Amino acid sequence: MLRKHYRIALVDHWDGTPADVMVALHARRSVDSIERWCAAQPRRPLAVVLTGTDLYRDIQFDAGAQRSLALADRLVVLHECAVDDLPAPYRAKATACFQSTRSLASVRTPTRHLRAVMVGHLRAEKAPQTYFAAAHRLLGRPDILLDHIGAALEPEWSIEAQSVQRACPAYRWLGPLPHAAARRRIQSAHVLVHPSMIEGGAHVVMEAVCSGTPVLASRIAGNVGMLGSDYGGYFAPGDSEALSVLLERCRDEPAMLDRLAAQCALRAPLFEPAREQAALLALVSSMSATAAMRGKAHANR
Fold first, then answer.
1. Do the beta carbons of residue 77 and residue 86 sit within 8 Å?
2. Where exactly are the structural domains of the chain?
3. Residues 142, 129: contact at Cβ < 8 Å?
4. How many CB atoms are closer than 10 A to CB 158?
5. Strand, coil or helix: 96
6. Could you tell me the pTM of the whole model?
7. pLDDT digits (tens, 9 = 90+) for 51-70
């Protein structure tokens, strides 16, 4: 998105090669590069992009993540509620920039069943146990199918997913899939389930919205900031009973899916690539202007 306008270097760690601006992804994981940058090039601006684990966990107690916040000239958050979730001293230098995705036409899906899909690696932050528990609650509803895409990041998640699959015939753990295949599964599902406990602005939520697939999501800031405060498909984090009720309503009340789809369609323009590109170009342009002013002020000393 920036390459047509700037010379871009993508690196895992900054090696000291001079540059005009740094955009660091992840406050905690990038802290070493951030500190080296600020020590070596103190007049060159720095933006730090905050993930969900940054915003809702690491900056609460991790000293490295806290240093990144303090050193950054600009902070970038990925949903519209996130600026207010920052510590008050840092809000003035924060800006919200929605990530984007390509829109796909919705796919007409069979009506003999409801197919839900959860897309996310099996780890605690994504709360797969909520989906597992909903599968058990829906044992008497063979007309509600639950697909699950994602790698098990710890062996115990694999064991549990396989156990649920044996006990609940409607649940299928599909493991990790290539992005294009996962996107097609989202596109052809009746509903995406996103039960995360921590989220900074999930790509799969916008991919569902931009595929015409309604979303059932935990009511956490990272999901509300994507879908809007008045969205009708929320359940409390960890509440498998509420999730199973919503899935039953989506199956038994066709108007429910239509209402959620209409609400998602209103949010889809937020996730257009041109909008994200414009926000990023504005960010880098403003930081480049800051760098020029700092250089001029230093030369005049």
1. yes
2. 22-100+272-299, 114-271
3. no
4. 15
5. strand
6. 0.90
7. 888 999 999 999 999 999 99
